[in-house]
Amino acid sequence: MEQRKVIQFGKSALCMTLPHAWTKKHQIRKGDLINVQETLRNSLELFPAVAEMKPSSSLTIDISGRTTDEIIQLILATYLNGYTVVTLKGSNKGKVAYLREHIHEFIAAEIMEVTSDTIVIHVFWDVETINLNTILRRIDHIIRSIFEETKDILEEKVRTNDIKEKGNEIQRQVLLGKRAITYALNNSSTALKFNLSSLELYYLSYIIYFSGRIAEYIPFIAESIEAADFEKEITQEEKEEFTEIFTRAYQYYKKVMDVYNKRNQGQKFVLSEYEEFHKEIEAYRQRNGNAKKPIPGEYLMLLVRTIKEMEFTMINLENSPKPLGNEQEQLKQE
Predict the structure, then answer these.
(1) What's the number of domains the chain is made of?
(2) pTM of the model
(3) How many CB atoms lie within 10 A of CB 210?
(4) Of the candidates 92, 257, 108, which has an alpha carbon nearest to the alpha carbon of residue 176?
(5) Are the C-beta atoms of residues 124 and 140 closer than 8 Å to each other?
(6) N or C: less crowded end of the chain, CB within 10 Å?
(7) Distances in Å between the alpha carbon of 188 and those of 25, 36, 130?
(8) pLDDT tens digit string along 19-48?
């Protein structure tokens, strides 16, 4: 870590010089403006006042001898870490169709060039169009939809294919949210645009992650219920019991998200109200946990636990420390 000496400037101001390597990297010239903000660690963060140009970061990966699943994991890592051009070098015989199918799981990613030993993937990434709250609202809307549709399965109003497709769309939105957060953590101007501290971005990443888990559990529940109903392995009484407990799980989710979205200004988090509910789900799971009882008590338990973890994270987010606004304004004026 480099140290620099603070010197007197005029009668009351203190100043220090900027590192040459940093000013060269960001093309800082005499008269340019620098943004200064206090972090939650009581340190100061500096970055150019002019919005950073969106970098076209590229990466080349050698895929020789790698399986298609290994390649997909590498592509996922580059997507989450903000690369916009990824070149896969090496023999891709028999792999292109599989890769193309899975790359469509990443929003704005397309294969733009294919030869026998090269695949070029572009991610058409415009950070200026990204809004984390919009992503979360979109995820929330789809989750509510698959909750409703899962309840309707026993009345044969929907089929699980629709629910699974919506679950897949949630996972695509989750990846986009993770990419945006990772990018913001590595680019100060983007974090400033989101108006979120690093700690808030950390909590938000977990909320998005839990949303993805919820979107995995509900389709599993839907498939189990559909199969049980088709095979006539579920009685009317068991249908009613499932509907009641699943509806309560949905209500729990809605209450948590409504507090987060501030749709109900007077509503508070409801963590303590669901201790008894957890006990009821555990009893339900015990009654429906064997091969002859395919109703997914285990997934119901995982679903509600995940909602509870999401709520706890939201409480942490709501109570996370914020830099003092007055001090920031004073820094700007000076």
Answers:
(1) 3
(2) 0.79
(3) 22
(4) 108
(5) no
(6) N
(7) 15, 11, 15
(8) 888 888 778 888 888 878 776 556 777 777
